[in-house]
UniProtKB/TrEMBL annotation:
It comes from Streptomyces violaceusniger. Signal peptide: none annotated. Its cofactor is [3Fe-4S] cluster. Keywords: 3Fe-4S, Electron transport, Iron, Iron-sulfur, Metal-binding, Transport. Coiled coil: none annotated. This is Ferredoxin. SUPFAM superfamilies: 4Fe-4S ferredoxins (SSF54862).
Length: 64
């Protein structure tokens, strides 16, 4: 599983970071940072919630 962000769509709201703080964060410039593109199994539910919680659907999971 790999996590991707569409940078053009992302509004840097930070909502997703609340669901998966071990994987997603905002940097000092307010840009979204993916801390781990291939999160471990115990974080997958959090990541899926973050994907679902993004208001502009900027996050995407692929199974590669
Ligand atoms: S919730 Fe969506 S728009 Fe907001 S920071 Fe995360 S990816 Fe970007």
């Amino acid at each position: 599983m790999k996590l991707h962000v569409d940078r053009e769509a992302c509004l840097a709201t930070g909502l997703c970071t609340a669901f998966a703080p071990e994987v997603l964060d905002l940097d000092e410039q307010g840009e979204l940072v993916i801390l781990d593109r291939t999160p471990p199994p115990h974080l997958l539910d959090d990541v899926r919630q973050a994907v679902r919680g993004c208001p502009v659907r900027a996050l995407r999971i692929t199974e590669d």
